[in-house]
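Predict the holo structure. Ligand: 1,3-dihydroxyacetonephosphate.
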Amino acid sequence: MPKHLLIAANWKMNPAPAGFDTPDSPYRPRTDVDVVVFPTFLDLEKCIGAGLVTGGQWGDPKPSGAATGDISMAMLKDMGCSSVLCGHSERRKYHHEDNAFVAEQVQAALDVGLMPIACIGETEEERSAGKEKEIVQRQLSALPDGVTVIAYEPVWAIGTGKNATPEQVENMHAFIRTLRPSARLLYGGSLNEKNAQELLALRDVDGALVGGASLKAASFRGIIGVAGDLC
Ligand code: 13P
């Protein structure tokens, strides 16, 4: 059965890649695959201006106030963003954002009309201890019911070049599906143009959240091409 995949480019703390705004840019919206880019806050405006479907990498649940250096979900929405990442493992690790805070972010995003992509996933130690499902279940159960997109990103696969195997991905996604049957489930973690086919074709994979490979237009084009063939 054809899929309708969502491919999200998380550029993290990097400039928008060369070619992001050219007429044939692979980051542009398409009819067969949903494509969303997540630039730094500094590049939001130019991505939105270039006609890309754009989201924020982070947003504060409060609409405004005394929070130096932060921006809010409401501000992202006002400037033309359509989506926001919540609970990325780099935020959980380096900024100590816990499940309760991520739940507040997701709810605030939903309230202002942004599509939150809630990120979950276990660390290497948690998987070695056989606790990956327990961790993922705990992260999931904290999320508001309205969340429609969940990204499973095992921490040990992020930026390591060591993607989870198709068996590991399908096993976890099928588990997540039983708990959140109506959410779209993205996989993230060293996904690239070479392994995209075997991962995106899995029954319970509805798309990908791509880091490193989304920074090279040619690699991202390859991923979008694979996704398009599956749709
Ligand atoms: P990599 O694709 O670089 O492993 O990053 C994944 C990620 O963290 C996307 O949010």
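The pocket of 1,3-dihydroxyacetonephosphate is lined by residues 10, 88, 153, 158-159, 188-191, 209-213 (CB under 6 Å). The first helix runs from residue 44 to 49.
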